[in-house]
Structure formats: C-alpha cells, structure tokens
Amino acid sequence: MVMAWRNLSRRKLRTSLTVAGIIVGVAFILVLLSLVAGIDAQVRTSIRALGGADIIVYNATIINPRQSFLLGSSSTLNASIVEEIASLPHVYAASPQLTEVVIVNDTWALIWGIDPQTFDDAAGGLNIVEGRAIGESETYVTVLGKALYDVLNASLGQQVLVKARPSNELNNVALTNVTLTIIGVHETGVSWADRGLYVPISVVQDLTESYGKVSSILVKADDPNYVEVISSEIKALFPETRVVTIATIIERASQFLNTMTVSLGSIGMVALVAGSFGVVNTMFISVVERTREIGTMKAIGAKNSTVLKLFISEAFIIGCLGGIVGVALGSLSSLAVSSLSIDILPTARNVSPLLTLPNVAVSFFLGLGTGVVAGLYPAWRAARMKPVEALRHV
Q: How many whole angstroms separate alpha carbon 45 and alpha carbon 359?
C-alpha cells in the first residue's frame, strides 16, 4: 500500500484529475439521495399530519386532495351526509371539515373549520404545544399553527382578525370579517399545516356563507380491516364523493419515492461511470509507463499476484480518496441547498436534502467500488506481462 501511494504521489496532477472524476460522481449521488430522503421525510410527516383518520372523503370534482385547500368552499359536500357516513357499520367516527384561504392580521393562511365534538375521535386531535384545544361549546376561538403563531408574534388570549370572501363573491364585495381569540398553539412539523389555524366549523361557514357545507369528511374505522369495505360503501351511497384511504396515500407515496430513487440514482451512476473511464485511462498509462519497472520486479522474483495487488492498491487509493472527498463535497452541497431553500422559499424547508448515514455509506462505497473495479483490468494486464518482453520495452 505504501509503494502504491508513492507511485500515485509521483504523478500528483494526473492522480488529482482522476480522483476528481470520482469525487464529482459521489457528490452528485449523495446530493440526489439526500434529496429523495428529504422528500420521503416530508411525505411521511405530511401523512402523519393528516391525523388518525383512516379515510378522507372529498367532493368528486376535486382532482387531488391538495386542491381542497385552494378551492375552499367552491367544492363542497352537503353536511347531511356526515351523519349518514357515521351511521354505517364499522364506522367509529366521522368528522366534517371546511377549509378556506383567509387573511389573518394581514397574513395569508389556511383555516380549518372542525367539529370539536367528533374531531378528536376521527383524527386523533391536534398536537397542542401551548394552551388548549377547542371546546365543544366554544365559537369565536382559534388554535394557531406554530409557524403562524410565530409570524404574527402572537400570544395566548390575544385576538386576531380573520378576513375571507363569501362563497358568492363578486369583485366589489367586501371581505367578511370575524375576530377570534387565541386559546392554543399546535404543531405538526409540516410548514404549510403549521401556517394555518383551526376554528369551529360554524365560523368558516359564516365567513364563506357556506351554511350546511363541508369540504371534507374524516372517517375512522372501528377496525382497520374494514377500511376498504367502508370506502366501497361510501362510494356506492354517495357517487358525488371521492374517497381516499390513508393506506392508498402511503402506497402511492412509496411507489413515487422508489421510482424517484431509481431515476435519480441512475443519473448519479452515469456520472460515476464517466469517472471510472478516467481511472481506467490513468491505470493503463501507468502500466505502459512502468513496463520496465514491472519487468524488473518480475525478474527479481515478484509474482503475478504481487504486481496485481500493487495496481489494485493504487486503484483502491484512488477510489477511497474519491469517496471520502466526494462525500464531504456532497454533504456540504446538501447543506448549501438546504439553506438556500429556507432563505428563498420558507414553505419548502421540509423538502430540503436530508443527510442520512446509509446514504453517506452507499455514496462512499460506490466511489470506492468504482475505483477498484475500473482498475481491475489494467492491473490484470500488468500482472500478465512477461518479464523478458517488459525489460525490452523502451
């Protein structure tokens, strides 16, 4: 190994350029894997933020669940079907929600109108970090998300002004206002969710003039084995609805992440393969330049395995250096991208690259393996040289 290091040290520029090819590939792969890990963490956190509900029911005209936050009261269901769903066999609880985009003290936010009586049973309640949750008999009170609470620099007991247009809005219609008292703060870890606020559903119905309307229904089964049965019954009874199970969301998210991992990993492997050509080229040049040296070694008794180990050691050192520096560069790049996303787009902070030990290890060993594999054939060629022919080389 010492001799291999000395041989590489004599050709510093060539060795540096060869190692650079692996460094770029390793760093690129680590950043891509970290990005996938960040997305995975965001997806899992977002799913947990949905609460303990097994099923979510939307208006069928909504293309995807996220639209319910943007469309608000324009795509709603009749509140009467909540009780019908709650009465279905194996339904433990059904809780209505009405969502809208509003202005809270001049700050845009999402507002969720909930039924305090059934929300805890259907969704598991809010993760209250300060204050308390909304009581069944309360009306003009609110629980703010931690991020919104910080943005407003609010405090418990303080009042906030909420503005929203009615559902039949015209350009010249004034904003509908309501004053709410802050009684609690909740936190989910999801940026967009923590920028919102929860209120009794009647408040949002008043704000949007959506009386007797809901935008979604959270359903909890008394047994997880009956989730699909309940979903089928709801679809059959209410064809105007779109029924989404949490299990389906998790399955689709996993498929998406697996596809993304393979796709991005393939891109990174292309970069590593390109770096491997540099290793092969460097090793071949080294073999040609040291032909007489190889012949001398063999003439004084060096075995083929000794020559093979020497050149593989050089390839190992190149791969090891590329892996170590590549991991360091990839880690710094991931942290830089993470900081950049927070500064430029605060709502994207949870989809920043996430460094994990497995991804670091995979990236390093890919770099190391690339160096060793790329050096195998040149090393084999060197070991196969005949001493007499090697000594004749000029």
A: 20
